[in-house]
């Protein structure tokens, strides 16, 4: 993010459902790309990611069912997040704009941090 922007937000989102990813144009000029499977593996809700020291479901399972990474809809939440609804009915994950940007898989972001993901999961350092 450049210093010309007080906050980060998408200005345009293009869903490529047939190819299971979305393109995000950010207000700082960054052209991002997010794979649906990566988004689903990194769901920030308490049930998926865990809370208060407890593991979430996604810490335990090794693979997702096919409908768990099929994006049905994407809803803006205020001026800070997006809420995806997945085909399996899951819709409790709020992806803040900062989190969505951290999950970016565009060529530039992947070149800057080639070990960023392991099995679609963000490697936290």
UniProtKB/TrEMBL annotation:
Alphabetical UniProt keywords: Iron, Metal-binding
Any matching Pfam family: GBBH-like_N
Metal-binding listed as a keyword: yes
Protein name (database record): DUF971 domain-containing protein
Transmembrane segments annotated in the record for this chain: none
InterPro entries in the record: GBBH-like_N, GBBH-like_N_sf
Organism of provenance: Candidatus Chlorohelix allophototropha
GO molecular function: metal ion binding
Gamma-butyrobetaine hydroxylase-like N-terminal domain sequence ranges: 13-101
């Amino acid at each position: 993010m450049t210093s010309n922007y007080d906050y980060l937000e998408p200005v345009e989102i293009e869903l490529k459902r047939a190819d299971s990813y979305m393109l995000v144009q950010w207000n700082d000029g960054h052209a991002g790309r997010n794979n649906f499977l990566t988004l689903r593996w990194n769901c920030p809700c308490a049930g998926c990611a865990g809370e208060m020291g407890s593991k979430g479901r996604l810490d335990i399972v090794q693979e997702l069912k096919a409908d768990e990474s099929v994006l049905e809809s994407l809803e803006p939440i205020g001026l800070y997040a997006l809420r995806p609804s997945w085909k399996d009915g899951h819709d409790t994950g709020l992806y803040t704009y900062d989190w969505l940007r951290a999950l970016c898989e565009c060529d530039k972001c992947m070149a800057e941090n080639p070990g960023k993901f392991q099995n679609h999961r963000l490697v936290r350092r």
